[in-house]
Design goal:
The structure is a single chain. This protein has eleven helices and ten strands. It has 285 residues and is α/β, with parallel strands linked by helices. It has two domains: 66 residues, Chemotaxis Receptor Methyltransferase Cher, domain 1, CATH 1.10.155; 198 residues, Vaccinia Virus protein VP39 (Rossmann fold, 3-Layer(aba) Sandwich), CATH 3.40.50. The strands form two sheets. It has a seven-stranded mixed β-sheet. It has a three-stranded antiparallel β-sheet with strand order 3-5-4. It binds S-adenosylmethionine (SAM).
Length: 285
Amino acid sequence: MPNITSKEFELMRDYIEKECGIDLGRDKAYLIESRLSGILAESGLSSFQELYKKLRDEKDIKMNEKVIDAITTNETLWFRDKTPWIILEDVLLPQYIEEIRQKKRSRVRIWSAGCSTGQEPYSTVMSIDSYLKKHNIKDISLDHFEIWATDISHSVLDIARAGKYDSISIMRGLEDEFRDKYFTNEGRKWILSREIKDRVKFRQFNLQNSFITLGKFDIVFCRYVLIYFSAQLKREVTKKIHGVLNRPDGVLFLGNSEFFTNYEDSFVKRQHKGGVYYMVKEFEV
Ligand SMILES: C[S@@+](CC[C@H](N)C(=O)[O-])C[C@H]1O[C@@H](n2cnc3c(N)ncnc32)[C@H](O)[C@@H]1O
């Protein structure tokens, strides 16, 4: 494996930050080396300088995608931290259902921003479906919920769209009851039922881009994504999320171990059963 020089590290670090917002800091040369050396090997490149030239001078799109796929951290699991879905079922769904019945709203729009391989948006659909069934609700259906899921990485979106998971990823966070209800086992793969899979609209999207085409949402999950960004990009993205949340009661879920500072002007922090959610304040920031 070629060692990365300090000059190459700076070039690649700046390129990565520009392309996907990931702030690698000063001491992450090993991360670039370990995650990108496979790309060098398979492309017959002998140094990171050559890789950088391909990306910058030749604007090689496939190479750009490979670098983004390799450098993003795609760790995820089903019902991660559990509390967002407890809040969804205890607090948000009863309110939405009542509002739909009273014709105060026609649907609920949810966005999983940085959805990785799909566990987050699919957990949300399973949670809504099981809630409706558990409470024997017949007048409201999954048709009333529109779930969008986006990620910058093409390779994770391919896995998400396929809805097929190996036996290790299926075990991570998913209760047997949900697995047996919503998946069928084919050899070494677990296949998500179409009923759940077809409810999620996946799209490649860079959170650095404008949100203007996305429309408004009632809930945004942006969990364990902002932690990789610089403080400035974090601020920009949360401001854009604030802009796409419906008022007065749009909700943002962050990861349970994420710190969210200086939000008080734009969000109100709420807590429920050990979980936290942020409700949008009425006025613009
Ligand atoms: C650690 S995963 C979190 C997945 C999921 N939200 C969860 O909590 O389990 C972070 C995801 O953010 C995506 N990501 C990183 N930078 C991004 C960007 N600039 N735009 C959109 N997605 C990005 C990565 O590709 C990765 O799949």
